[in-house]
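Now for today's protein.

===
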Amino acid sequence: MSFPAYARYKASGVEWLREVPSHWAATRLKNLLREIDARVGENDLELLGLSKSQGVVRRSELSQGASESDNYSKYKVVRSGNLVMNKMQAWNGVFGLSPHDGMISPDYSVFEVAEPSQRRFLCDLLRTDQVAGELFTRCRGMGTAFLRLNTGDFFDVRVPLPPPDEIEGIIAFVDRETAKIDALIEEQRRLIALLKEKRQAVISHAVTKGLDPHAPMKDSGIEWLGEVPAHWRVVPLKFLATVQTGLAKGKDHGDQTTVRVPYLRVANVQNGHLNLDDVAEIDVLPSDVDRYRLRIGDVLMNEGGDFDKLGRGDVWQGQIPDCLHQNHVFAVRPIRVASTWLNLVNGSGYAQTFFILRSKQTTNLASISSSNLMELPVVMPPPDEQMDIERAVSSMRSKLDELTTQADLAIGLLNERRAALISAAVTGKIDVRGSAKVLQFPIERARARALVGTEIIERSAGQPTFGRVKFQKVAFLAEGHVGISELAGCYTRAAAGPLDGALIDEMEHGANSIAGVERAQPGGSGTTNTYRLTRQRGAHRQELADWLGPDRTAKLDKLVADFADLTTKQAEAVATLYGVWNDLLSEGAEPSDDEIITGFLNDWHPEKREKFRASELPEWLGWMRRHGIVPTGSGPKTTTGRLFV
């Protein structure tokens, strides 16, 4: 959406700012701010931190932590509403308004904004690239790591200042428009997380079940592995490969002759790829080079670290000559198994489960010994089948990686749009006065979810079969079939059908706020959820009807009524069939009933074949047609997609 410029501008007299709206002023920061230099002394105050992405937060909430000290007496006192500046990162826009009372590092500057109504405006302005560029020219020191902005130089900067009554509208505009962008960014992040989950699921399913959904299965004899195709073998890794442990750092070689060689650390060995941008070097004895040298085809696996690092790795392709590896990276050397297959197994969910179960664990850390590693049960299809699986997984990985790249690019563009919008608003490049008054959201997503969730629960809570699973299916169809796109769900292909756990959490929270709805599990953990209605029943209905309009209101009423007599399993069947059918239509297909049923049983989730028979699904396709619950391809696409295409 584009926004108009102001009708008239004037020269600001400020080089970086150039023109401002004719009724705005340009003034020095010393006229707007007062530095506060109160020290903590003997007071007991909460430690705060400051970052560019989070602003001023409690130290416990800071993503990378704040430095600790044995003596906080010289730390600076911060009061709620104070503006905090990182003097060494001011040129990078590191400012924040504190929502807390507390204390902060004496290396930071703390300011009181003379006019409280200007706090947000000034903070948003100081974080823009334009102001950051001006502050950079006023910093003193050498190199970006040692630049410091003194208060006097900071106070000398001239900034634009709108009239007081206009500032409120600018902040309202910024809040509304950035909320829209932030919601889109969050959806992209959720999509990336789901794509990551699907990537893992693709590997796990292919490695443990193969590509043929009709293949006879047998019990693997391993509880957490389950069934595998009957013609596969399961062989401990120790019978298929050897393991080479790595080089320990810190050896004292005295006067002996050494050579300097590259070596891999845990940081170089990522999940499914190697990061060789920063490869360290180490001095070793010449005899150690042969002993610890990596060979082409070695499968690298991390010994431990954070849980997500345990066992992760990739195949060494000889990218760096005479490269060694540290003792926290295992080099598994295949003998009776292909490196590519072993690496695929290593990245599967069942292998990760094995690594966790066999690891030595402390708080948030785990490590596995080489002897335990070699007990890993490796599933072994025939060689030709291994190659087919590897090709199928590679194809799907490429598609998922491309989608992830697109989502990352979208986030980057949205962040650029966000920064540009704020900058344009606070520097007067766009006139948002009319926009701030009339361009409201039709409804906020959280409110939309709360209203629809309240309606579904109030209408359905008395049904003996209504629980959280059935609630999710009705919510999915409320968006897909009724057309309530404001719900903005992001649905994954879960065992019980289309699932967006965050959507349901927000719906339940909203229903509690609107109508006091409470969720419980009378039978204990793992049993059916129930919903208890307490007060204000129906109080939301007029707002819901005004928002949805008569057509969508009637369609939602009918959907809830149609689902009233369905069991949980039947609701799962209908919602899953709808999801498969809608996905195929959105891809341009015109699926037959057999193709929809095949997608349901084979492409959705492995548990579907255990819970449903092909012969019972035509009944529910017929039920959907009789009740008019037929997709058009415009509904939300389930983001985990089909396992293999």
Remarks:
- The radius of gyration is 30 Å.
- The mean pLDDT is 88.
